[in-house]
Amino acid sequence: MVTTLTHTRTGFDTLGDLLVAVVRAGKGQGVDPRLEAVAGSDEHHGMSIERGGATVPDELLREALTRRGDSDPVLSRVTRIPLSHSFAKVPARVDSNHSTSVSGGLTLARRPETSAIDTSRMEMEQIGFASDSLCGAAYVSDELMADSPIETLLERAFLDELNAVLLREFISGTGVGESLGILSSPALISIDTTGQTTGTITGANLTAMAGRTWHYDREAVWLANPDTRSILDAAHVTFTSGDRPCVHYEAGQAYLLGRPLYFSEQCAALSTVGDIICGVWGEYLLGVRQEGTMESSIHVRFENFESTLRFTFRGAGAPWWRAQLTPRNGAATLSPFVALATRTT
């Protein structure tokens, strides 16, 4: 009597079928879909090029080709605040109105000899930070861990993912369980685009944005969706002596109205608020309880000869300005973050 051995855990009818599929996969003759159904099939392993086999070197080449993420001009500019606890409060001076004081309420006045001076008081507020966790995990077979640089590659990839997620949150985060983005800040200035058609950004838009950006000449940088590049290259400002382009390039670096311009896929879609942003990112605070770190464990899937790699970052950010700044002399308010309103005509 012939007994058929059914491997319900693997999807193969017999052990022989399973072994044949493994041998074929090892020879590069294709991976049987049922192999992907084996317990622990969500791990990285050497039997599949796509799942990690590509990192196993034939000789000594232990590098991998990767698509590098956007250059990130923001993380290097935000104000980082080390946190010693899971939640912290940072004192800040309230000075959103400079009509009478630039220091949150303190004043100075000339006085005649023997005359009393007027007293004044500074207003303060607290900016709260919760060190929310941002985590990821991956499984890797022990064989692949031993035969390739997969652990280093995964750590680099998690760091790339961290940078992308943080930049997305800095721009459009809700502030609930994640960073608060500048597009949700009460201090954001959105330049009016009434009557403009979809897909347009004019020189007048750009000069208006620059004019409303606090400390523009000293610290501002531009961020824009890649779809805006050709539109920005064509944008110009009209002078009596002729038109001047808004964008110019020096050694490959783009400059818009004299300040650095960077393109990022994390910016909003073309013609929506956030497709182009002028920002002074030093006014964005990032509280960090734990820098991005990766840890490994052999215990979770020990019987499957697999290791678990876990990546963790603890921290969150927010623009600390609670209101736009009213200058002592000037009709328009200022802000460290300025965007262009949606164009829908």
Distance between the termini: 79 Å
Q: In DSSP terms, counting alpha (H) and pi (I) runs of 4 or more, how many helices?
A: 6
Assign the structural class, choosing from mainly alpha, mainly beta, alpha/beta, alpha+beta, or little secondary structure.
alpha/beta
Number of strands: 16
What portion of residues is helical?
Answer: 10-25%
* H/E topology pattern: HEEEEEHHEHHEHEEEEEEEEE
**Molecular shape:** flat
- The low-pLDDT segments are 1-10
Strand order of the largest sheet: 6-16-13-7-12-11-10
Q: Radius of gyration, rounded?
A: 28 Å
Mean pLDDT: 85
Strand content: 25-35%
Q: Largest sheet at a glance?
A: 7 strands, mixed
How would you portray this structure in words?
With 345 residues, the chain is of the alpha/beta class. The protein has a domain of 38 residues. It contains 6 helices and 16 strands. The protein has a 7-stranded mixed β-sheet. The chain has a 5-stranded mixed β-sheet with strand order 1-5-15-14-2. It has a two-stranded antiparallel ribbon with strand order 3-4. β10 and β11 form a beta hairpin. The radius of gyration is 28 Å and the shape is flat. The N terminus is likely disordered.
